[in-house]
Specification:
One of its GO terms (cellular component) is U4/U6 x U5 tri-snRNP complex. This protein is of the alpha+beta class and 454 residues long. It is built from six helices and 28 strands. The radius of gyration is 26 Å and the shape is globular.
Length: 454
Amino acid sequence: MQASRHAQILQEEAVRQMELRRRMRAAVVPTQDAEVRRTLRLLKEPVTLFGEREMERRDRLRKLLAEMDDDEKLDKLGGAEPEDVDMVEIRKEKFYTEGPPQLKAARMHLAHWSLERAMDRINFSKRKRESPDEDELSERKAAVDAAKGVVNQSSEIGDDRPITACAFSPSGQQLATAALSGLLKLWTVPDCQKQITIKAHADRVTGVAWHPHAGAPGQGEDAPALVTGGVDTTARLWSASGKQLRTLAGHADRLGRVAVHPMGQHLGTASFDQTWRLWDLETGDCLLEQEGHSRSVYTVAFQGDGALAASGGLDAIGRLWDLRSGNSIMVLEGHVRGILSMDFSPNGYQLVSGSEDHTAKVWDLRKRKALYTLPGHTSLVSQVRYEPCDGYYLLTAGYDNTAKLWSSDNFKLIATLAGHEGRVIGADISPDGSGLIASVSADRTIKLWASGLL
């Protein structure tokens, strides 16, 4: 008897679900997100849920309408079904927050500067392709063959706490490391001798980046050299001698990665307050507070020409921004968990992203899609880097205690850099063309990797 009653309950539930699906198919639901939100507001339902996307919000409204009877609809919607915006004229309103005059001036400066850089890059690529003395295939093969022979050259205890980030100086002669201890340290390369220790933040340092003009001829002792970001919600600008030049405050939550624009006048900071910001390094003013992610923004990167920025968030979405206009020009959808690191290829039109879903993805901005997924790690990918001179190979680092090198041509695995006893949190490739690689880890060590003796 009890079994019969249980079977009857299951059958009734199956019938109810079938009827609900039928009603959902028949429900008239707006296709415009603004109208979906308006209808949810009329129903006294949350306009959006945490991390909810437009299609998910529309499906939620469809289910709510299917579960309501006609009397309830009449009571809550005033006797009218939601507008089917496919059948009426869509009312479009461009929403924006007006920026300061300094932002307009910065955009104009960025536009002129980036156009010149793009022209130089394209002309150089054209000359290289047409020159009878240049053989790009041979160069690529030589770079990949050299990368296959990369081995550990040195290992140094770098801090008392896990090391969270590392970056080579523009000349490749120094390495900066940052740690959970709040310390920023500078090391000589390749002998890995500590030069200076700076108490950069009271708590954890989450990102470090060099100024592109650091160490250039004519730069004074107090010229900007480094930027750090921390969990104290601030970014800080430092000279090479360890003098703090400026504190950039404004974010409402901890920072993630930081990146200095290649022009050298602006800084990008990613934050857990779901925004990334663009700062003027000379004045310390925040020029832009950019929204667009539904969860924390973890990483920001600039294209080499300086025209584009990329942001990656824990909502598993990457966004490409035109710095000259402020428009979001491409959404990078494909990762299933948060994006932790991004980097542009020197060719200007490819981008790599590393994610908590254990993969890195290579995106072609011209084709507006992912070219390839690199599935080589068994844990999250904490750092991605293109070889900065020619981009013939790229580097990924992961929480599986390894870093890996991949060909950017056919995306085959070139080498696995194994040796750390803890999660590899940061890694970088020297910009001097030597192929020197640095990696830092939760095991508190700095390791240098190269194909020949240093």
